[in-house]
Design a protein that fits this description.
It is built from eight helices and four strands; from the N terminus they run αααααααββαββ. By secondary structure, the protein is mostly helical. The radius of gyration is 22 Å and the shape is elongated. The chain starts with 7 loop residues before the first helix and ends in a 14-residue tail after the last strand.
């Protein structure tokens, strides 16, 4: 009986286009997370699966052969309406979260405020593959740009889009609505209070006479 095909990219939570450096980095993270000696997240089965996936994907020749078989498994034509709807909702949540993070960085440093791809992955808690589509979509619309430093930053068009009604923040977005802010108290100590982030202010365009 032929061995069932195993999606190694799914196991490592990677895109099929992941670079060798990315594969190495993610492998090291997962190895520590699922190591049997880890009392919190240890998982012997996941640990073994991660090692098996890495042994294939870290070897150029073995990966090339695997990718040929992997491509054959991605040619299905069955359309799952429920899954498609879930994917759209998840993309929307990630899109909002990226907008929020990049807006905050741009407002903090107007000239060069941005975030690297790895920083976005860590801040959002999503794998690289889940960021590829929203980042591509935002770039095609001109809502984000890549700075000379290699970081991703929101553009003026992106800030305008963020102020549109159709981009209004939803209650179930990935970023929290409140953040802790320390204010000096009468006794010299810092008191923690909550501030609700209202979103960016609408941008008023000014016409400059020639």
């Amino acid at each position: 009986m032929p061995k069932q095909f195993v999606d190694y990219y799914e196991i490592l939570e990677l895109s099929p286009r992941a670079t060798p450096d990315t594969i190495d980095r993610v492998y090291r993270i997962m190895l520590k997370r699922f190591h049997p000696d880890n009392p919190v997240t240890g998982d012997p089965e996941r640990f073994a699966a991660v090692r098996e996936a890495y042994e294939t994907l870290s070897n150029p020749d073995r990966r090339a052969g695997y990718d040929m078989r992997y491509g054959d498994t991605q040619t299905g034509s069955i359309f799952d309406q429920e899954t498609a709807q879930t994917d759209r909702e998840e993309d929307r949540r990630i899109l909002h979260a990226i907008f929020s993070l990049l807006y905050t960085e741009r407002r903090r440093k107007p000239l060069d405020g941005g975030l690297g791809a790895v920083a976005l992955e860590r801040a959002l808690g999503v794998p690289e593959r889940d960021l590829e589509f929203p980042l591509w979509y935002m770039k095609q619309h001109g809502w984000i740009e890549v700075l000379d430093s290699g970081q991703i930053a929101i553009t003026v068009e992106g800030i305008d889009k963020l102020a549109d009604k159709d981009m209004a923040y939803r209650q179930d977005r990935m970023l929290p609505e409140t953040s802790s802010v320390s204010t000096p108290g009468s006794s010299g100590r810092s008191n923690s209070r909550k501030e609700t982030y209202p979103g960016p202010r609408p941008v008023n365009r000014v016409t400059v006479a020639g």
